[in-house]
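Morning!

This is the sequence you dropped in the shared folder:
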Amino acid sequence: MNISLVEQLKSVTSLEDAQLGADILGYFDAASRDEAHDLILSLFTMLSKDRGITRAFLARRTGKSPEQITRLLSAPGNWTLETFTHLALAMGYKPKHALERIADMRQSNEHHPPVSRALLDDPNPPHPSIGAPAKIDLRDIPRSPPPAFRVIQSGEFELASA
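The structure's back. Tokens below.
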């Protein structure tokens, strides 16, 4: 059975006593891993320009080989919370975590109201060519651009608000 992304998100926000589907769990696992990777990569890029840190420096600080650091910075494939923490600490930062209610998340097509209304099962689409929402495969959703971050104090950072 093919369930739309909107229906899957509704199941997450409902807090019903029902198991979450593997697709939605996988989607948010990958999104969290991508966010952590983008944050570390942005921090590394900034510090390499400002302070001259290198992959070799991170390798020495974490006890990993330079090749491992290159792989970790290239893609978030098998990142864990420990990977995120170790790389942040190696660059002199303490990870700071935040949670966002799914119900409060900004719609990805907010700047395209007709598409957002179609995705939200609007019974009165603004244009006849925008009928009922198509079934959405989570693998077809493009990744968002890397998140911005800001330094809170020396040694702390967080994702910037949209």
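Headline: Residues 5-9+21-159 form one domain.

More detail when I'm at my desk.
O.
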